[in-house]
Amino acid sequence: MGFLDKLKNKAQQGKGRGKEAAGRAADDPYLEAEGRKDRAAGGVKQVGEKAKDAAREVRRSTEK
Asked: Where are the transmembrane segments (predicted)?
């Protein structure tokens, strides 16, 4: 399920970028901040997925 999680995280980052741009265009600081929050949350989740991948690789390399 790692691939789907990564895809969802990228989608969340994209949604955040859209909200951020819409907030800037509409001069709405709250929408812009919400977009930054979404983008950051997606990025943090991506880091978690990469850490899980790295841990899996370490396990695989030590099993052999």
From this structure: none
> How wide is the angle at C-alpha 37 spanned by C-alphas 33 and 43, nearest 5°?
145
DSSP three-state, residue 26: coil
pLDDT band at 57 (very low <50, low <70, confident <90, very high): very high
Q: Where are the alpha helices (DSSP H) in the chain?
A: 2-25, 29-63
Q: What pTM was estimated for this model as a whole?
A: 0.81
State how far the alpha carbon of 50 is from the alpha carbons of 20, 27, 31, in Å: 25, 35, 29
Burial tier of 1 (Cβ tally within 10 Å: 0-12, 13-18, 19+) = exposed
